[in-house]
Amino acid sequence: QKNNANEPEFLQAAQEILESLELIVEKRPDIEQNRILERFLEPERFIQFRVAWLNDKNEVQVNRGYRVQYNSAIGPYKGGIRFHPSVNASIIKFLGLEQILKNSLTTLPMGGGKGGSNFDPKGKSDAEIMRFCQAFMTELYRHIGPDTDVPAGDIGVGGREVGYLFGQYKRIRDEFTGTLTGKGLAFGGSLARTQATGYGVCYFTQEALKTMKGETFQGKTVAVSGAGNVAIYAIEKAQQLGAKVVTCSDSNGWIYDPEGIDVELLKEVKEVKRARLTEYAKERKSAEYHEKKNGEHGVWNYKVDIALPCATQNELNLDDAKALVKNGVQIVCEGANMPTTLEAAHYFIDNGIIYGPGKAANAGGVATSGLEMCQNSARLSWTFEEVDAKLKGIMEGIFHNAHDTAVKYGVKENDLLTGANIAGFEKVCNAMIAEGVF
Ligand code: NDP
């Protein structure tokens, strides 16, 4: 606590994890003997650097860059890069800590890392985005590599940004390796990576519904938040599986579309035009657009069976959780990282709602990045169907691992949070003990 007092998001993530791990710490004295929890919470390395670049008016701009190389016990550091004005050390550390457990749950050999900058991509020209990415990589390149640390995208970093980052890495290092994932298909990217996180959330949700309720997506109503990469493909897959998704949002407002979100129109607005959701509402007669006021989230106030938060941290609080439960929600699975506050997560679990935390439910993105690393190492590429089938298998496996662990440790079976934390931690902990003290 006292070493990280000004890092609320990091403390929130650490508290949530430590609460769950009490159950395994009681059973395994070697965790305490090896001081694994203290070592687990302390990043192996935290890098902070200056990113100076020129805007289109040739004015010098200065931002701050970060990379946390959190834990390499089970593989090279792996985790996305976020460009958003809210990025600071606390956010990078919370994301890195979550990433360790998430990567472990995928069953692939990947350690945990995360990075980013307080750079705001909104309103920047394509040339400015390129110059910023090049400046960012001009420092980051010395810390990463295909067997050391493999970054990817996150909020504000999609295919375009990964392309510029990869181009600069290749230029400086004079090597063509899979040092970043989420690359374009022409230069080592994997089919299905763009869809992976959103599709993965739905595969996880589908397996949970089938196992715990004997149900499917067919005929269900779904609330989604966000309108970025994760949200778009969660909406697409949920609708393919027979559900109707009635909401999406961005940081200014939200859409309620009782006919179901038109995902092709949403892609056109967000991926092609890079416009706001007001554009979607203009084109779609059945859609209502609501401006966000006083920090309200909006999308959690409708009658739905399934809720998939896919925007950002702490976007679903206790009041939202109460509204969802009152409106009959059965399952909440997180596409975003830590979108649900700790008290809201407890409220879901205490009220019998199936709660799939991000580190389990959104692991499909990094899992497919792991598959991109495999393809890059072998210098070949798999078909969309092959990657999608592997993704589905991994997501089903993650659900069962979290569920079985919850049952094994005697907590409620809908408490996939405890299940995921313990299952992800155990493998990392065993590797840390086996590799000796450092
Ligand atoms: P994008 O940048 O593509 O989209 C982010 C979406 O969330 C946008 O609609 C954005 O709205 C909204 N948003 C972002 N920050 C805020 C904020 N502070 N308040 C309100 N809305 C906000 O990012 P992704 O879809 O890639 O990421 C979404 C979440 O999923 C993040 O938590 C990320 O860490 C997580 N995630 C992503 C993975 C991936 O593969 N992409 C993998 C695993 C997790 P606006 O445009 O207005 O900013």
How would you describe this structure to a colleague?
This protein has 438 residues and is of the alpha/beta class. The chain has 2 domains: 2-177, 3-Layer(aba) Sandwich (Rossmann fold); 195-356, 3-Layer(aba) Sandwich (Rossmann fold). Helices cover 48% and strands 16% of the residues. The chain has 16 helices and 12 strands. It has helices spanning 8-27, 29-33, 36-41, 89-105, 126-140, 159-173, 193-213, 229-240, 263-272, 277-283, 318-326, 342-350, 358-361, 364-378, 384-408, 416-434, and strands at 45-54, 60-71, 77-83, 111-117, 149-152, 221-225, 244-249, 253-256, 288-291, 306-309, 331-333, 354-356. A 7-stranded mixed sheet has the order 9-8-7-6-10-11-12, with helices on both faces. A 5-stranded mixed sheet has the order 1-2-4-3-5. β1 and β2 form a beta hairpin. α1 crosses α16 and α14 (364-378) packs across α15. The two termini are 22 Å apart. The mean pLDDT is 97. Bound molecules: NADPH dihydro-nicotinamide-adenine-dinucleotide phosphate. NADPH dihydro-nicotinamide-adenine-dinucleotide phosphate (NDP) is lined by residues 84, 86, 153-156, 158, 197, 226-231, 250-252, 310-312, 335-337, 362, 365.
CATH topology of the largest domain: Rossmann fold
CATH architecture of the largest domain: 3-Layer(aba) Sandwich
Helix content: 40-55%
- CA-based shape: globular
- In N-to-C order, the SSE pattern is HHHEEEHEHEHHEHEEHHEEHEHEHHHH
The value of Rg in angstroms is 21 Å
- Report how far the terminal alpha carbons are from each other: 22 Å
Q: Bound small molecules, which ones?
A: NADPH dihydro-nicotinamide-adenine-dinucleotide phosphate
Q: Which CATH class of the largest domain is shown?
A: Alpha Beta
**Structural class, from secondary structure content?**
alpha/beta
Q: Strands of the biggest beta sheet: in what spatial order? A: 9-8-7-6-10-11-12
User: What is the name of the CATH superfamily of the largest domain?
Assistant: Leucine Dehydrogenase, chain A, domain 1
**Total helical segments:** 16
